[in-house]
Every structure is written in C-alpha cells, then in structure tokens.
Amino acid sequence: MHAPDDPTDAPHGTRIPADISRPDRLLGPFTARQTAILAVSVAVLYGGWWATRSFLAPLTYAVLVIPIAGAVAALALGQREGIGLDRFLASALMHARTPRRRVHAPEGVPSLPAVVPARWAKAAGQTPAVMRMPYDGVTPHGVLDLGSGGNAAMAMCSTVNFELRSVAEQQGLTAAFARWLNSLTGPTQLLVRCHRIDLSPAADALQRTAAALPHPALEQAARDHAAFLADLAASDNLLGRQVLLVAREESAAGGMRRITAEGRALQRLDEATRALAPAEITVTPLDGPQSAHLVSAACNPETPTSQADGTEGDLACPGSS
C-alpha cells in the first residue's frame, strides 16, 4: 500500500483557461454571429407568416416552418470540432469547389494544343488550376508575409521524454509549459509535421570519412553504421517528425505597422524561447532560407528530407505512421 500523504503520488496538473479564443457574448449566451443568424431567420419567418396569414392557418404555418427553424437553430448554435456549424459548412462548400489539381504557374496554365486528339484531352482530365499561395514572400529573418492575414514567424522545437521523468519532474515541466500558454498574447500554433527522410547523404558521408579515423576499429564501426543507415534508406516508409511553433501577428494598414508586426512576431518567438527553456524545450527560430525550404517541403510532401536539414523529434521506424 502507498502512503496516503505521499506527495510523489499526487497527480500532476495545472489550471489553463478553457476556450481562450472564444468570441464575446453579445446577447445572453449568443455571440454576435449567432445573434445575427437568429435575428435574420426570425424576421424572415415572421415576414412569411405576415404574407400568408390571410389564407394559411397559424397552426399550419407553424408545422411548415418548424423543420426550417430547427435547421437554422442547429446551424447557428451547433458546433463541429470546436467550429461553428455555419463556418464548418461554409468551409466544406469552399473545399468542395476548390480544384484538386493546382500548379505553381504565375503566368497561367495554357490549354492543350488543338492538334491533341479529343480522346487524349478527355483522358487527361480537367486542366490544373493556378495555385494561389497564401503568403507574399519571406523576409531575410524568416517571417512570412501573409498579406491581410498579418505576419508569421516559425521556429523548430525539440521534444521532451515525459514518461521517463518522476512525478515531481513531470509537474515542473507541465507547470512551465502552462505558464507559457497563459502568457500568449496572439495566435500561436504548434504543428507536428511528419515527412519522409533520406539517409543516403549521411551514409555516404560516413563512408567517405571512415578512412580518416585514427583507429581501424573506429573505421570499421563507422562503415558498419553507414551500412546500417543504407539499409534504413532502402526502406519505403522511413518517416521523421518535426515540431514547429508558428507565431502570427496581425498587421494593420501602413508600411511602418507592417514592419512593426514583423518585429513583434520575432519578439514572440524570443519570448517562447525563454519561457519554454524551464520545460527543457529548445526553440530554434528559422531564418529566411530555412522558412522558404519548409514552405516548399509543405507544398511537396513526398519530397524526401535529408537528415542534415536539422530534423527534430523522433525518428519513426519503417512501417509506422
């Protein structure tokens, strides 16, 4: 039996405000968006009753509009994965209308020449659409210019082996991470990215430098490790995980305010670096070339990433997901 007052057996936890991005309530429990949807629906339904009251009984009209009122109420008050049902359906419709095949072609996608047979053009399917990237460029400091969406700075985060720590250490790590969450002043995203890894460059580098090692045993060990990496590289599903921190800062109109938003995004990364240090998480901001490479890799997820690119996190074994 455990001692009832043993502090090491106490569950670790910390208080974090729930729904920190919840919109303000305008009328009772309803937000401004919900109030607008319900008010417009009530006005339309009342207008319909006013127009049909001369030849339609009130009870008959109520029976007809109850399904409509229920659907509108579900649309205004319902949620799916933390998103309002109206916004979720609007996003679903936008996704359904978005072309599935898009290419980077600022000059436009030319149509097939007239000499191509009709059956070949039909087999080729719909012409790819032009890809419109949601950012306007990357600054030398690695800040993404999102246009009307503001500016975003990215950083790479190390991982922490949480299960091997004692309860007291787990409490300290959790408290440090919670303090950073409570100190956030703007939109922040933690992204766990999974991508393919190419170990061939590392294996080749070991083979080239093995002969320069000072002892034959070290040379043999290096060659054995290079052979091991080559076997891993031959796998079809070698994956790596990368933890990214993205700090976005809203920008108003005006060039000076845009520059201020860029500096503020970088400052928030610096604040995250200091705040997450007690949680033993190393935050490494990405510069311009690194941010551009990351965006390019996100647009081409099947492109293998070299191990020398600074991948953080765990290396997934072949066959894992």
Describe the structure.
This protein is of the alpha+beta class. The chain folds into two domains: 25-97, no CATH class; 137-316, no CATH class. Helix content is 43%, strand content 17%. It has nine helices and 14 strands. It has helices spanning 32-52, 58-77, 85-97, 118-124, 167-182, 200-209, 216-233, 255-276, 288-299; strands spanning 25-27, 30-31, 79-80, 83-84, 102-103, 129-130, 137-138, 143-145, 151-157, 188-198, 239-249, 283-285, 305-306, 315-316. Strands 7, 8, 9, 10, 11, 12, 13 and 14 form an eight-stranded mixed beta sheet that branches. A two-stranded antiparallel sheet has the order 1-2. A two-stranded antiparallel ribbon has the order 3-4. Strand 8 (143-145) and strand 9 form a beta hairpin. It starts with 24 loop residues before the first strand and ends in a 5-residue tail after the last strand. Mean pLDDT is 80; it is low at 1-10 and 310-321.
Compact description:
The chain is α+β, with helices and mostly antiparallel strands and 321 residues long.
Taking Cα atoms only, what radius of gyration do you get, to the nearest Å? 28 Å
Range of helix content: 40-55%
Number of structurally distinct domains? 2
Count of individual beta strands: 14
Determine the strand fraction and express it as a percent band: 15-25%
| Average of the residue pLDDT scores | 80
Backbone structural class: alpha+beta
Sketch the major β-sheet.
Answer: 8 strands, mixed
Distance between the termini: 40 Å
Q: What is the chains' assembly state?
A: single chain
Which term fits the overall shape?
Answer: extended
**Residue windows where pLDDT falls under 50 for at least 5 positions:** 1-10, 310-321
Tally of separate helices: 9
Secondary-structure element order, as H and E?
Answer: EEHHEEHEHEEEEHEHHEHEHEE
InterPro entries: Uncharacterised_PrgI
Protein name: PrgI family protein
Pfam family, one: PrgI
Keywords: Membrane, Transmembrane, Transmembrane helix
